[in-house]
Amino acid sequence: MEMMSTTLYQILPGVSGMGNNRVCVSIGTSDLNALKKMVNESFSSNADFIEVRFDFFEKSVMNDALGIVLDRKEQAVFTCRSPREGGRYAGAEPDRVTALRRLAAFRPMLLDVEYSTMKENEDLLDQFTALNCDTLVSWHNFDLTPGRDELVNLMNKMKEYSSNIKIVCMAKSIDDSISILKLYEDAKSVGINLIAFCMGEHGILSRVLCTYAGARFTYASLGDALAPGQLTVKQMGAIYERLEKSGFNDYSAWKDRQDFADILRMINEAKW
Predict the structure, then answer these.
(1) What is the pLDDT of residue 1?
(2) Which terminus has fewer CB within 10 Å in the chain: N or C?
């Protein structure tokens, strides 16, 4: 079993609009006409990438949905999210895994596959490798944010399947956001391309600052949030503009809790 490696993070330029802070708009709809409209609106709103949630679609229309987004695949994260991790897929689990295999054949920028799915279907890694499909192996905790040691241990296990890893947890306090941002130091030391942030109101800080800490991009919505605490792409743009005007450009210099409190105040002012 060979771990997939990628230079994706070095070779893909971002679309200008938010400086170095790239944003991926999550698109979740079961309506094909709405999908086409949302793809166009995402990029016209200065999004750099889109995440297409195929778990919103019935099996019978997945091919039609794929046809709509295929010309944007090099700027797209494809996923068919498991209900266990917040997804909407209503069919049988084997059908969902089959959908992931089919999506992999089209080689999007990234294919987001849950860590649990990779573990339960050991042949997926070899198939994705043979297809030369870059994967983003993801893990979600909708209840809490585990301690740093536990997350580091998890991250090292996930690395068996891909060097691109996403860890998303529910924040119970601002300290959870600060804690998950520190995970980037551990990721860098072992060659992991990490996207990690927290959900919920207390997680907004990490959603914004994760790109400064080392994430290739962060996530946003066009309107209604697809996850707790998710901001719109326009809000993210306003926040990043505010931070840049304030002179914030060196995440490593902001490690004190009071510094983060100052940044959070700017975020709250800018997002409205």
Answers:
(1) 39
(2) C
Q: What is the pLDDT of residue 259?
A: 65
The one-letter amino acid code at 190 reads: V
H/E element, 135? strand 135-141
Q: How far is CA 133 from the centre of its chain?
A: 17
Can you read off the two tokens belonging to residue 271?
């997002």
Which helix or strand (DSSP H or E) is residue 265 part of? helix 257-270
Residues designated as active site: 140, 166
Q: Which domains does the chain have, with CATH numbers?
A: 8-231 (3.20.20.70)
Question: Exposed (0-12), middle (13-18) or buried (19+): which is 17, by Cβ within 10 Å?
Answer: middle
Q: Which residues of 251-271 are buried (b: 16+ CB within 10 A; e: fewer)?
A: beebeeeeebeebbebbeebb
Give dist(CA 125, CA 113) in Å, integer.
Answer: 10
pLDDT of residue 242: 85
Burial of 37 (0-12, 13-18, 19+ CB in 10 A): middle
Using alpha carbons, list the distances in angstroms from residue 49 to 37, 65, 94, 108, 221: 15, 17, 28, 11, 11
C-beta separation of 117 from 100 below 8 A: yes
Q: Tell me, what's the pLDDT at 260?
A: 72
